[in-house]
Write a structure and sequence with these properties.
The chain is built from 4 helices and 8 strands, in the order H-H-E-E-E-E-E-E-E-E-H-H. Helix 3 packs across helix 4. By secondary structure, the chain is an alpha+beta fold.
Amino acid sequence: MSSLTVFDYLVMHPLLADLPADWLHRLTLQADPVMWPAGRRIVREDERADLFWLLRSGAVELDFHVPGRGDVVIDRIGVGGALGWSWLIPPHRWTLGAVATEDCRAIEFDARGVRALIADDPGLGRELTARFLAVMADRLDAARARLIELYAYPDSHPLPTGPRPQD
């Protein structure tokens, strides 16, 4: 069993590592470690987005439902990635689904609590919003590339290659 605390994990995670300790301590109060076995569906698109996660190990595939094709994988998140940005923008509904493809360890955040922190501290709000905007931009680029691939080769379903850091 690890003697590391949630605070330690936040300090080591690429998305939050350089935030001031005071902000990290406040975020720690909204966070808990979680584990998912490979194959577990974590979220489904259009469900309420009241949580988000920072991956410490394993991998997660992002998908969306396409009528006639089922769930289509459009991206893969690995160690050091962030799962979820829909919690930040009303109406707080998932835009994609997510499935653990390997056993995963993550830090889970209560999005309502983090939104309250953001409302109370505009500096923290600006910083987290900027960081998650970068995550959103990466996801949109990955989705664009995947959609081009799907249209170019409609009869194949190749998976994204390897986890991308800082997702």
